Amino acid sequence: MDIRYLADHPGHVPALARWHHAQWGHLYDDWTLDVAEAELRDHATRRVMPTTLIALEGDQLLGSVSLVEEDAPELRDHGDAWLASLYVRPEARGRGLGALLTRALVAFAADQGIERLWLFTPEHEHFYRQLGWRSDGTATLRGTPVHLMDILPA
Ligand SMILES: CC(C)(COP(=O)(O)OP(=O)(O)OC[C@H]1O[C@@H](n2cnc3c(N)ncnc32)[C@H](O)[C@@H]1OP(=O)(O)O)[C@@H](O)C(=O)NCCC(=O)NCCS
Description:
It is built from 4 helices and 7 strands; from the N terminus they run βααβββαβαββ. The protein is of the alpha+beta class. The protein has one domain (2-151): Aminopeptidase (3-Layer(aba) Sandwich).
């Protein structure tokens, strides 16, 4: 299992965009598949925020996680560095890959000098808490209650 920059494997952008859009597309009115793909193409141009890490087994794409300045406009003032779009393909779940990607993103943020990292999650608070994230309040995004969480990467 390797964690790599999407920037080094841009050929995976279309598949990743399809997965992300199928998972989260219903939450955002204007976030079409084309927009999702354009965002990831942009991430694939750089190895600093905003960017995306991917998990590969050989050539096979298993998952991804992103580091972005803003994950929801409503939370713009809450934090300026977010773990976003953690995704593991269904066949690869439950064997630690989500934890591996999350830890890799936190380590990457530390390398970037990011002192505090946030995320929001509707239902995976327990998963992130096991990985050292702290609860940082709650919010409601488009009618969905979410947990806000943070971690100090350094
Ligand atoms: C959430 C998600 C990323 C987790 O990915 P994953 O690879 O299954 O995560 P892990 O395997 O690291 O951990 C998941 C659970 O499996 C358990 N687990 C980890 N390794 C395991 C193993 N070898 N055997 C059995 N269980 C294991 C973990 O303890 C964890 O348990 P928990 O639910 O009590 O926290 C994945 O389910 C996903 O992509 N979901 C859809 C998108 C999504 O909801 N993303 C999160 C947005 S906030």
